Amino acid sequence: MNQQEISRQIAQDLLKIKAVFFRPEEPFTWAxxxxxxxxxxxxxxxxxxxxxxxxxxxxxxxxxxCYPSVEVLMGTSTAGIAHAAITAHLMGLPMGYVRSGTxxxxxxxxxxxxxxxxxxxxxxxxxxxxxxSVLEVVSVLRxxxxxxxxxxxxxTYGMKKGIERLAAAGVRNVSLTNFDEIxxxxxxxxxxxxxxxxxxxxxxxxxxxxxWIR
Length: 214
Fold this sequence. Notes:
Elements: H1 3-16, E1 20-22, E2 28-29, E3 35-36, E4 38-40, H2 49-66, E5 72-76, H3 79-91, E6 95-98, E7 111-112, E8 120-128, H4 132-143, E9 147-156, H5 160-168, E10 173-178, H6 179-189, H7 196-205
Parallel strand pairs: 5-6, 5-8, 8-9, 9-10
Antiparallel strand pairs: 1-4, 2-3, 6-7
């Protein structure tokens, strides 16, 4: 499949297993305080074998295409760990993950798994919104001497803040699907009204402006 076909397939998959929730009339509140008409829980892909297969095969496909020199996959803690492990198995690659903080016991690792300085790494993440957490992972890996080629993620909101942060850090992200694709597919499938798309895109373009809520 080409990238557009992958994007639509994964959007359909996420909607089918209700991993994406739409509540433009009753917005979700994120930990940051941002009110969002959408909540995406990609952990649900792990309990849906057919969708999980689509996701891991697609991650393998885009990593091979976009990062052909990759040597190691590193998952983000915790949501990216399982996806990195399964995709690494499919690709025959070593895998590890990066903790959100250094362990306070044992070897006090933050990076779990063997990583040699100079190895070419792709970070596997489940979703990207403002980009802060995944860039912390990239920073830890770079500090350890890794050559971070980029990120492979399941879903991205495509928020301006996230795009700018990634660009400033010199980090490429390739996502299986995105906010616009899921919104369009949700309207086609009747999960939301076609007129809701404009409100969803208004949120995506400027999350701090709550005028889309009405």
